[in-house]
Amino acid sequence: MSRRDARARAVELMDRVRIPGAAQRVRDYPHQFSGGMRQRIMIAMALALEPALIIADEPTTALDVTVQAQVMDLLAELRREYRMGLILITHDLGVVADVADRIAVMYAGRIVESAPVHDLYKAPAHPYTRGLLDSVPRLDQKGQQLYAIKGLPPNLTRIPSGCSFHPRCPLARDVCRTDEPPLHAVSGSRRSACHFWRECLDG
Ligand code: SF4
Question: Where this protein primarily resides, as one coarse class (predicted)?
Protein backbone atom coordinates (compact mmCIF):
# COMPACT_ATOMS: atom_id res chain seq x y z
CA MET A 1 0.00 0.00 0.00
CA SER A 2 1.43 3.41 -0.96
CA ARG A 3 1.78 6.15 1.65
CA ARG A 4 -1.03 8.05 -0.05
CA ASP A 5 -3.32 4.99 0.14
CA ALA A 6 -2.34 4.34 3.76
CA ARG A 7 -3.18 7.91 4.68
CA ALA A 8 -6.53 7.74 2.84
CA ARG A 9 -7.35 4.50 4.68
CA ALA A 10 -6.40 6.07 8.03
CA VAL A 11 -8.67 9.05 7.32
CA GLU A 12 -11.49 6.69 6.32
CA LEU A 13 -11.15 4.71 9.57
CA MET A 14 -10.88 7.85 11.70
CA ASP A 15 -14.06 9.10 10.02
CA ARG A 16 -15.71 5.77 10.73
CA VAL A 17 -15.00 6.07 14.45
CA ARG A 18 -16.28 9.67 14.34
CA ILE A 19 -13.09 11.68 14.79
CA PRO A 20 -14.15 15.20 13.70
CA GLY A 21 -12.00 16.68 10.90
CA ALA A 22 -10.19 13.38 10.29
CA ALA A 23 -8.45 14.59 7.11
CA GLN A 24 -6.91 17.53 8.98
CA ARG A 25 -6.03 15.53 12.08
CA VAL A 26 -4.55 12.40 10.56
CA ARG A 27 -0.98 13.55 11.26
CA ASP A 28 -1.67 14.77 14.81
CA TYR A 29 0.16 13.21 17.77
CA PRO A 30 -1.62 11.25 20.51
CA HIS A 31 -1.25 14.06 23.07
CA GLN A 32 -3.29 16.30 20.76
CA PHE A 33 -6.36 14.08 21.16
CA SER A 34 -8.69 13.72 24.15
CA GLY A 35 -8.88 10.41 26.06
CA GLY A 36 -12.12 9.47 24.28
CA MET A 37 -10.63 10.22 20.87
CA ARG A 38 -7.52 8.19 21.64
CA GLN A 39 -9.79 5.28 22.52
CA ARG A 40 -11.64 5.69 19.19
CA ILE A 41 -8.34 5.69 17.33
CA MET A 42 -7.34 2.45 19.05
CA ILE A 43 -10.62 0.98 17.80
CA ALA A 44 -9.89 2.30 14.29
CA MET A 45 -6.44 0.66 14.37
CA ALA A 46 -8.07 -2.64 15.31
CA LEU A 47 -10.60 -2.28 12.47
CA ALA A 48 -7.79 -1.73 9.95
CA LEU A 49 -7.00 -5.43 10.26
CA GLU A 50 -10.62 -6.36 9.47
CA PRO A 51 -10.79 -8.68 12.48
CA ALA A 52 -13.34 -11.41 13.01
CA LEU A 53 -13.09 -10.68 16.75
CA ILE A 54 -12.07 -7.69 18.86
CA ILE A 55 -10.96 -8.17 22.46
CA ALA A 56 -11.41 -4.84 24.25
CA ASP A 57 -9.66 -4.78 27.61
CA GLU A 58 -11.19 -2.09 29.88
CA PRO A 59 -12.12 0.10 26.88
CA THR A 60 -13.76 2.81 29.00
CA THR A 61 -11.36 3.11 31.94
CA ALA A 62 -10.52 6.74 32.84
CA LEU A 63 -13.26 8.14 30.59
CA ASP A 64 -16.15 10.19 31.95
CA VAL A 65 -19.61 8.65 31.92
CA THR A 66 -20.79 10.42 28.75
CA VAL A 67 -17.72 9.44 26.75
CA GLN A 68 -17.97 5.89 28.16
CA ALA A 69 -21.47 5.62 26.72
CA GLN A 70 -20.31 6.97 23.34
CA VAL A 71 -17.43 4.48 23.12
CA MET A 72 -19.71 1.58 24.06
CA ASP A 73 -22.33 2.68 21.50
CA LEU A 74 -19.62 2.86 18.86
CA LEU A 75 -18.33 -0.63 19.68
CA ALA A 76 -21.86 -2.05 19.54
CA GLU A 77 -22.53 -0.35 16.20
CA LEU A 78 -19.24 -1.54 14.66
CA ARG A 79 -19.85 -5.07 15.91
CA ARG A 80 -23.16 -5.15 14.04
CA GLU A 81 -21.82 -3.45 10.92
CA TYR A 82 -18.67 -5.56 10.57
CA ARG A 83 -20.40 -8.71 11.84
CA MET A 84 -17.52 -9.39 14.19
CA GLY A 85 -17.33 -10.85 17.66
CA LEU A 86 -16.58 -8.61 20.63
CA ILE A 87 -15.17 -9.71 23.97
CA LEU A 88 -15.22 -6.97 26.59
CA ILE A 89 -13.01 -7.30 29.64
CA THR A 90 -14.22 -4.97 32.37
CA HIS A 91 -14.62 -4.62 36.11
CA ASP A 92 -17.70 -2.43 35.58
CA LEU A 93 -20.93 -4.41 35.20
CA GLY A 94 -22.80 -1.17 34.46
CA VAL A 95 -20.80 -0.75 31.23
CA VAL A 96 -21.69 -4.10 29.64
CA ALA A 97 -25.41 -4.33 30.35
CA ASP A 98 -26.52 -2.80 27.05
CA VAL A 99 -23.83 -4.30 24.82
CA ALA A 100 -23.16 -7.90 25.85
CA ASP A 101 -25.22 -10.97 24.98
CA ARG A 102 -23.46 -13.13 27.57
CA ILE A 103 -21.40 -12.43 30.65
CA ALA A 104 -18.73 -14.64 32.18
CA VAL A 105 -17.78 -13.54 35.71
CA MET A 106 -14.26 -14.47 36.77
CA TYR A 107 -12.80 -14.76 40.26
CA ALA A 108 -9.21 -15.77 41.07
CA GLY A 109 -8.57 -16.69 37.44
CA ARG A 110 -11.60 -18.92 37.01
CA ILE A 111 -15.07 -18.46 35.50
CA VAL A 112 -17.50 -18.67 38.43
CA GLU A 113 -20.69 -17.80 36.56
CA SER A 114 -21.67 -17.49 32.92
CA ALA A 115 -25.11 -16.59 31.69
CA PRO A 116 -27.13 -14.61 29.15
CA VAL A 117 -26.82 -11.00 30.22
CA HIS A 118 -30.44 -10.42 31.26
CA ASP A 119 -30.62 -13.63 33.33
CA LEU A 120 -27.48 -12.69 35.21
CA TYR A 121 -28.65 -9.17 36.03
CA LYS A 122 -32.12 -10.33 37.00
CA ALA A 123 -31.01 -13.05 39.40
CA PRO A 124 -27.31 -13.89 39.90
CA ALA A 125 -26.54 -17.54 40.62
CA HIS A 126 -23.20 -16.93 42.36
CA PRO A 127 -22.56 -14.87 45.53
CA TYR A 128 -19.62 -13.07 43.91
CA THR A 129 -21.82 -11.91 41.02
CA ARG A 130 -24.45 -10.81 43.53
CA GLY A 131 -21.80 -8.86 45.44
CA LEU A 132 -20.60 -7.15 42.25
CA LEU A 133 -24.14 -6.14 41.30
CA ASP A 134 -24.87 -4.89 44.81
CA SER A 135 -21.70 -2.76 44.60
CA VAL A 136 -22.96 -0.77 41.59
CA PRO A 137 -24.06 2.69 42.86
CA ARG A 138 -27.79 3.33 42.33
CA LEU A 139 -29.74 6.57 42.18
CA ASP A 140 -32.48 5.18 44.45
CA GLN A 141 -29.89 4.61 47.21
CA LYS A 142 -28.67 8.21 47.32
CA GLY A 143 -27.23 9.13 50.73
CA GLN A 144 -26.86 5.50 51.82
CA GLN A 145 -23.54 3.78 52.41
CA LEU A 146 -22.25 1.97 49.29
CA TYR A 147 -22.09 -1.81 49.53
CA ALA A 148 -18.68 -3.45 49.25
CA ILE A 149 -17.75 -7.15 49.19
CA LYS A 150 -15.88 -7.80 52.42
CA GLY A 151 -12.18 -8.65 52.40
CA LEU A 152 -9.70 -8.49 49.55
CA PRO A 153 -9.14 -10.49 46.35
CA PRO A 154 -6.84 -13.46 47.02
CA ASN A 155 -3.12 -13.60 46.39
CA LEU A 156 -2.98 -15.65 43.17
CA THR A 157 0.07 -17.57 44.41
CA ARG A 158 -1.93 -18.70 47.47
CA ILE A 159 -5.49 -19.24 46.27
CA PRO A 160 -7.75 -20.40 49.14
CA SER A 161 -8.67 -24.10 49.28
CA GLY A 162 -12.08 -25.35 48.15
CA CYS A 163 -14.07 -22.46 46.72
CA SER A 164 -11.60 -19.60 46.30
CA PHE A 165 -14.33 -17.11 47.22
CA HIS A 166 -15.13 -18.73 50.58
CA PRO A 167 -13.23 -16.26 52.86
CA ARG A 168 -15.43 -13.45 51.50
CA CYS A 169 -18.69 -15.26 50.90
CA PRO A 170 -21.79 -14.61 53.05
CA LEU A 171 -23.16 -18.09 52.18
CA ALA A 172 -19.95 -20.06 52.90
CA ARG A 173 -20.21 -23.34 54.86
CA ASP A 174 -17.75 -26.07 55.79
CA VAL A 175 -17.93 -27.83 52.41
CA CYS A 176 -16.89 -24.59 50.70
CA ARG A 177 -13.54 -24.64 52.53
CA THR A 178 -12.63 -28.11 51.29
CA ASP A 179 -14.44 -28.87 48.01
CA GLU A 180 -13.94 -26.84 44.88
CA PRO A 181 -17.36 -26.39 43.26
CA PRO A 182 -17.64 -27.53 39.64
CA LEU A 183 -19.50 -25.41 37.08
CA HIS A 184 -23.07 -26.57 37.74
CA ALA A 185 -25.64 -26.39 34.94
CA VAL A 186 -28.23 -23.94 36.26
CA SER A 187 -30.45 -23.80 33.18
CA GLY A 188 -29.93 -23.78 29.41
CA SER A 189 -26.48 -22.32 28.80
CA ARG A 190 -26.26 -20.90 32.30
CA ARG A 191 -23.51 -22.11 34.67
CA SER A 192 -22.48 -21.39 38.26
CA ALA A 193 -19.48 -22.61 40.27
CA CYS A 194 -21.24 -22.48 43.62
CA HIS A 195 -22.36 -25.40 45.81
CA PHE A 196 -25.37 -23.32 46.83
CA TRP A 197 -26.34 -21.70 43.54
CA ARG A 198 -30.03 -22.45 44.12
CA GLU A 199 -29.97 -20.52 47.39
CA CYS A 200 -28.18 -17.63 45.71
CA LEU A 201 -30.66 -17.62 42.83
CA ASP A 202 -33.56 -17.38 45.30
CA GLY A 203 -31.94 -14.29 46.81
S1 SF4 B 1 -19.31 -22.49 46.96
FE2 SF4 B 1 -19.65 -21.72 49.04
S3 SF4 B 1 -18.10 -20.14 49.34
FE4 SF4 B 1 -18.20 -20.56 47.17
S5 SF4 B 1 -19.56 -19.04 46.39
FE6 SF4 B 1 -20.79 -20.84 46.83
S7 SF4 B 1 -21.54 -20.58 48.93
FE8 SF4 B 1 -19.89 -19.12 48.61
Answer: membrane
Query: Is the dihedral angle over the CA atoms 19, 87, 62, 143 positive or is it negative?
Result: positive
- Report the separation in Å between the CA atom of 61 and the middle of ligand 1, taken as the mean of its atom positions: 30
pTM: 0.85
Mean pLDDT of all residues in 6-18: 91
Beta strands in the chain (DSSP E): 53-57, 85-89, 102-107, 110-116, 184-187, 190-192
Cβ of 183 closer than 6 Å to ligand 1, yes or no, is no
Does ligand 1 come within 6 angstroms of the Cβ of 195? yes
Superfamily of domain 3-96: P-loop containing nucleotide triphosphate hydrolases (3.40.50.300)
Q: How crowded is residue 25: how many other Cβ atoms within 10 Å of its Cβ?
A: 15
Rounded to an integer, the average pLDDT of 54-68 is: 85
User: How do the domains of the chain map onto residue ranges?
Assistant: 3-96, 102-201
- Distance from Cα 114 to the centre of ligand 1, integer Å: 15
